[in-house]
Amino acid sequence: MPSAQAEAEAEFLSEIFASNLQELATKEDLNHAIGDLRKDTDAKYEILRKDIDALRKEVDFKIERSTFSVQQKMDTHKFALIKWMIGLAIAQLGLVIGALNFFAMKFAG
Questions:
Q1: Euclidean distance between CA atoms 56 and 65, whole angstroms
Q2: Residue 83, Cβ neighbours under 10 Å: how many?
Q3: Is pLDDT at 43 greater than 80 in this prediction?
Q4: What is the pLDDT of residue 1?
Q5: pTM here?
């Protein structure tokens, strides 16, 4: 290989290496990039945590409201059930008294 060509190739390779060395990331560059990523991740984590807390409060409120509504309905139905039970007990007592009166008159007379 002629010396002129070898010098041209050497100069060309040295320029390529010089430009590539300037583009290579250093440890400091990597640490800076990692720090930026950590800050971004921490910020997103904090936003996510706040969103989850808000969602948890909303769900707790809805559960509490639903529980209160169910409790009110149960109280209403319990009152209606007690009314029916008392009414049926009175009707049953009247039926027993009527049946005893009927049989007493039939066998007495």
A1: 14
A2: 10
A3: yes
A4: 63
A5: 0.49
Query: Could you tell me the two tokens for 60?
Result: 């707790």
Q: How far apart are CA 23 and CA 86, in angstroms?
A: 92
What's the rounded Cα separation, in Å, for the pair 60 and 68? 12
- How distant, in Å, are the alpha carbons of 32, 34, 39 from that of 44? 18, 15, 9
Residues 92-108 pLDDT 10s? 999 999 999 999 888 87
Determine the length of the chain.
109
Q: Residues with Cβ < 8 Å from 25, sequence gap 6 or more?
A: 33
Residue 25, φ and ψ in degrees, nearest 5: -80, 135
What value, to the nearest 5°, has the Cα angle with vertex 27 and ends 22 and 29? 65
The contacts found for 81-87 with CB under 8 angstroms, 24 or more apart, are none
